[in-house]
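Good morning C.,

I know you're traveling, so I'll keep this short. The sequence:
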Amino acid sequence: MKLASRIEKVIFATHNQMRMDPKSFIPMIESSIKNFESPRSARLKRFGRPDLITQEGVNAWIESKQALLNQESLQGLRWSDGLALAAQDHCEDTGGKGVVSHDGSDGSKVWDRMERYGNP
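The tokens, ready to paste straight into the viewer:
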């Protein structure tokens, strides 16, 4: 993770925690469920921060909790600086243009960028 920023390291570690120990996120989900204004509300009270207005409402949190309860643990992922560079290159290439595609503006495919930056 030589090239990862601090926030990228935190996001990657959290993603791996979710894969390896999905049930560890249940207390956070339960806390959020309690902070909805009402059982039918779409407003999540976040004390000390602005409220979050959701489209789905509390049911999305309840479904998430159930999914976490049913999810088996998975193996953690391994960081690859090469893949990170390939992804960053693709975002810089297409993001500002509003392009939503796996193909680069030069016609490159995912595997082309992986090869360009070192296949993991």
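Safe travels,
E.
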